[in-house]
Amino acid sequence: MSGQSGIQSSIGQRLRSERRRLRLTQVYAADLVKVCKQTWGEWETDKTSPNAVTLALFAQVGADVLFIVTGEPTPLAPLDLASRRLLHAIVSGELVA
What we know:
Layout: H1 3-8, H2 11-21, H3 26-32, H4 37-44, H5 52-59, H6 65-70, H7 81-92
């Protein structure tokens, strides 16, 4: 996602996008972060916004909080040497199951 398209969407829209990416219902997502469904719905419709504690709880189930807040996805961490070697072995066919 480019920064331009992310910024044009709202925090509520990005929150909804992350919830859907994680395949969560509003009820289940609300339960995970200890709020009622109505509160979650207000966040997704930009009537109010979640606080930092709530976003931290949502991150614990895999939500990309940087994306929710800024519209920019969290960059992937570079692979360590052992992971690069394993990936190379898999791709080159050196690793046989």
